[in-house]
Specification:
This protein has five helices and three strands. With 115 residues, the chain is mostly helical. It has one domain (7-114). Helix 4 (70-86) packs antiparallel against helix 5 (91-114). The longest helix has 24 residues, at 91-114. It is globular. The two termini are 23 Å apart.
């Protein structure tokens, strides 16, 4: 993903639960993940936050969004980044994880721009 995305392009990566306004602290954001991406995260990324791991595991298989708070997204990004560093031998896995991580970074940029 390009670091040069416009704010509008980054906003399209996420779904705000309450219209187009960015959520306030504590509110959730619908982070777009396919069922394959969710399974990849559950199987490949150790996460010390059991509640976050449960949200990923128990997400509705037909839904395209996993509702997470901004701190949960940051925690997930940290777990993904740590796993990317460990997957140097498995390039395909590293690329897939990096794409998800970059989408989280883009979401954080949306919040920074909004506040």
């Amino acid at each position: 993903m390009s670091a040069g995305r416009s704010g509008q392009q980054r906003r399209s990566l996420i779904h705000f639960r309450h219209g187009e306004d960015p959520p306030q602290p504590g509110q959730t954001v619908g982070f777009k993940l396919t069922s394959v991406e969710r399974e990849l995260l559950v199987q490949s990324v150790p996460c010390p936050d059991a509640a976050l791991e449960d949200k990923l595991k128990n997400a509705d298989p037909g839904a395209s969004n996993v509702n997470l708070t901004l701190p949960e997204l940051r925690g997930l990004a940290t777990c993904i980044q740590a796993q990317i560093k460990k997957t140097q031998r498995d390039r395909k896995l590293g690329v897939k994880l990096n794409r998800i991580w970059q989408r989280i970074v883009d979401i954080e940029k949306v919040f920074e721009e909004a506040h």
